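Work Package 4 report. The design task specified in the project plan requires that, given a folded chain encoded as structure tokens, an amino acid be chosen for each position. We show below one input record used in the internal validation round.
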């Protein structure tokens, strides 16, 4: 029985205590860039408990796009300021979601991924490297996950050749285990319009890197849940979405952990409708791990329907799931 795990911000919070979208900007700024960002956030989004990372990134992306001719004339200064602020936001994301110096509680990963096998997949909307860090450690459980390497995913995201058969195994029979639909701290892209590698994504460790083709700085591939023009800017992400779609269409079980199915994530809703329209039979089981599991289930049912799974199961947290 193959399982697809869908991880949201709640999963990373449970293990790493990373902030969720709606709590991301509650901490005090720690640099001059942070002061610049704080002034902007206070002016446009008010109190710290009202600042959602999704709203901030979407606002800046809309400003940079200009919404057609809205910023014609004096709008150039708006775009310049938005570019600086977006850079500040990216720095804040990289700092606050860094695993360095953190003391994680791996119990959550141990309990949820217990029994993980070679046919299972992980789909995540998180930017952090929590699962990657865990996969490198000698844990007692989730042993197959310890064999996970980024090698073939990195090759696919950079290659100009045809991708391997969707949903099947990559070269050397190593499956594509971890699928990050909204990008990652270690997904980097060249933003130089003249660069021959501009469409590709580089998979690297933490740090600053230069494009090997043109020498320009590489920027993190981090996409807001609205996915505004994301596949135009990062076309290789579409490959990850396609593989994720196939994985869910072939799965026997889905496990949602800390993913709230936000109503603003229209691309996720579109993906799930496509998945369940293509399935030949309902899921054997659909499990939701979340303190607000009733609300999550209600939103998910509105997308895929009650009969999409033979059994719906609900767990308040990973401990309850692990004890079942």
């Amino acid at each position: 029985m193959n399982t697809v795990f869908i991880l949201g911000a709640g999963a990373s919070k449970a293990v790493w205590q990373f902030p969720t979208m709606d709590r991301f900007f509650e901490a005090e700024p720690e640099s001059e860039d942070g002061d610049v960002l704080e002034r902007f956030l206070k002016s446009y989004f008010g109190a710290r408990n009202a600042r959602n990372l999704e709203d901030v990134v979407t606002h800046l992306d809309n400003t940079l796009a200009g919404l057609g001719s809205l910023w014609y004339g004096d709008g150039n200064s708006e775009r310049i300021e938005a570019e600086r602020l977006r850079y500040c936001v990216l720095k804040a994301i990289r700092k606050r979601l860094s695993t360095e110096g953190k003391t994680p509680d791996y119990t959550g990963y141990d309990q949820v991924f217990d029994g993980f096998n070679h046919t299972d997949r992980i789909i995540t909307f998180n930017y952090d490297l929590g699962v990657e860090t865990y996969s490198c450690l000698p844990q007692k459980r989730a042993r197959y996950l310890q064999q996970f390497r980024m090698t073939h995913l990195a090759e696919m995201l950079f290659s100009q050749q045809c991708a391997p058969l969707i949903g099947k195994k990559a070269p050397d029979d190593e499956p594509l285990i971890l699928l990050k639909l909204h990008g990652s701290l270690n997904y980097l892209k060249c933003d130089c319009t003249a660069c021959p590698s501009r469409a590709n994504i580089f998979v690297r460790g933490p740090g600053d890197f230069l494009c090997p083709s043109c020498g320009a700085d590489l920027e993190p591939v981090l996409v807001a849940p609205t996915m505004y023009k994301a596949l135009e800017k990062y076309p290789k992400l579409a490959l990850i979405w396609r593989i994720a779609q196939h994985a869910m269409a072939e799965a026997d079980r889905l496990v949602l952990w800390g993913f709230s199915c936000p109503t603003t994530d229209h691309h996720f809703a579109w993906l799930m409708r496509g998945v369940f329209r293509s399935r030949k039979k309902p899921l054997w089981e659909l499990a939701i791990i979340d303190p607000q599991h009733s609300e999550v289930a209600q939103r998910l049912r509105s997308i895929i329907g009650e009969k999409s799974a033979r059994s719906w199961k609900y767990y308040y947290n990973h401990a309850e799931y692990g004890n079942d």
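The chain has two domains: 3-16+104-323, 21-96. Validation will be extended to a larger panel in the next phase.
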